[in-house]
Amino acid sequence: MRSRIGAHQPLFDKIDHMFSVSKTLPLTTDNLYVVAELCKYCCVLTAAAIDVCLEDCLVEYSENSGDVRLVAYIKNRLSRARNPTIQIICSVLETFDSKWKERLEGFSDQKVRSDIGSIVSNRNEIAHGRNSQISFGRLMPWVSSAKGLCKELECTVFP
Prior knowledge:
The protein is mainly alpha-helical.
């Protein structure tokens, strides 16, 4: 069986690539608009990467049990779209193991909680067609926190 661990990494790679490309564009009005739209897309991808990481870790964990009914149940429960805030992730983890929740809460200082909350909040604004004033300058530190969160999720579920 192929491991699902790290399946979110291509999303982070795409974000890093788009950020690099955005820095090479000359500062024209059209390019500023394109960069702003790329940034919004990268914010949505960041939220998706967190979601994918959580789902893949928990599905792989359930697949390791060998019980196809459990796998089907977990896939069904996790297939619904989530707003992956630290609170929601901890709530999902707690249904598996209260120690997982405690570990993630211990990892998630105020900066991580704020960064992940900002990703989710901006993702919702973007997804609902509202104007988000996000910039790569604000987004990329949040992406760094999201990468750290995903690494911690993997280490929590698969110590």
